[in-house]
């Protein structure tokens, strides 16, 4: 399918605005995504493409993010590898997010190992996707929590269970790292440990609530308790104290 975007028109937008590129070969899906982003991210110019073939025409533009829908294909599929390589070659400074019809752990992990900055299954709610997209634009790395099938329960986040979830964050080595508590955190309940792990990623209360299947009020309550237990004045200080990075703090 030919790219529906006219490369000659890519230079006629408001050049002072940073650019987000949406690469989706289905017109209806692409139009829906573009309309949502134009409403939610008014400070960006949204450019749509059907394929990666016109990316070179954006050379010289301030492209902040390229969101590429890989559909049902694996990240390791040669055609996807080629397109990701083309993205890196054409716009090496842009952050890359993948949309995928798959929501399995293998695909998500492969995407993060490939060095992309965001992995967005099409099964997640739009408000979660927008919160994750804002994280990527802010310089963080986003992917949903690992999911696990349970008989009669469908897909549920691992964070609903008693073990502390391993959240993914940026790493200088390979683009990802598993965020685990630096201390034993014996003074925190399991749920407070879950919330603290999400705080370390800088997630807003709304996204924490969605990830952990809690109400926003409950998340706020847990954050207040976490702050109180370490005598922190705000959530940032709480993260630093529980991570053992705040001077003068001793458990």
Q: Strands, helices and their partners?
A:
Layout: E1 19-23, H1 27-40, E2 45-49, E3 63-69, H2 78-90, E4 95-100, H3 105-113, E5 118-121, H4 126-137, E6 147-150, E7 154-157, E8 167-169, E9 177-179, H5 190-199, H6 205-212, H7 216-229, H8 235-242
Parallel strand pairs: 1-2, 1-3, 3-4, 4-5
Antiparallel strand pairs: 6-7, 8-9
Helix pairs in contact: 5-7, 6-7
What does this structure look like?
This protein has 251 residues and is an alpha/beta fold. It has helices spanning 27-40, 78-90, 105-113, 126-137, 190-199, 205-212, 216-229, 235-242, and strands at 19-23, 45-49, 63-69, 95-100, 118-121, 147-150, 154-157, 167-169, 177-179. The protein is elongated and about 55 Å long. The longest helix is centred in the N-terminal third of the chain and has 14 residues, at 27-40. Strand 4 (95-100), helix 3 (105-113) and strand 5 (118-121) form a beta-alpha-beta unit. Strands 2-1-3-4-5 form a five-stranded parallel sheet, with helices on both faces. A two-stranded antiparallel sheet has the order 6-7. A two-stranded antiparallel ribbon has the order 8-9. Helix 5 packs across helix 7 and helix 6 crosses helix 7. 35% of the residues lie in helices and 16% in strands.
